[in-house]
Amino acid sequence: MEIRYLMKALLLPPFTQLILLLSAWLLRKRIPRLAQALSLLAVMSLWVLGTPLASKILAFSLEQDPALKPNQLGKVQADAIVVLSGWQNETAPEFGEPVSGEEQLCRIRYGAFLHQSTGLPVLLTGGSVRGDERRSLAETMAFDLTEGFGINAQWLESKSRTTAENAKYSYLILEAENKTSILLVTHSMHMMRAKWSFEHAGFKVLPAPTGFVGLKPLTVLSFLPNAHSLQRSSKALHEWLGYWAYLVIQ
Description:
52% helix; single chain; two-stranded antiparallel sheet; 2 domains; elongated
């Protein structure tokens, strides 16, 4: 898993730009024109990827499934709701135990809303991604779902480390219950890869995306870089790389 995270760091901003700048510095005397080109590429790509405009364009390229309309949920044909994990905050002294991070909590909230609207049972999926967490992501999700929304998950899948394993191990649980038609809850930018993985595992998937990127009118600020937009661009590029890798490997 450490190699996987190292590869992510090398292929995604801002580390890629740092590599370009380091390469430019090393080549500045031997091949000055190439060094100048690499420096310009590093600076310009960092600027562009850090702008709200570019980051939203990348995000929109992944948001291929629309939101489910609340007034249609009563007619949904599915056997269960599957909520994918995100990340957890293990430093939460105010709770005395790990709690869901912002991304994971967003998915839990929507999973709870879907459960209340449809009455369908909930499966929470997520193990120990790095291997050093105090408890699985699924267990932390179950804590937040119960304490925050008064809902108990029917199943916990706590062995998975990747989206592909989320799908594989969730299918083993739900196929045994004859529940292979699911509402799949994850972020809109993650849905394309998640949907492919769960369909590949054998599920019939009805996407239930959440956490959409909003569209706002263009202003001067749309072209000025900021840390939040760079992070969004990095996440979007990560999803595209992950999706292409899944297509090749699986």
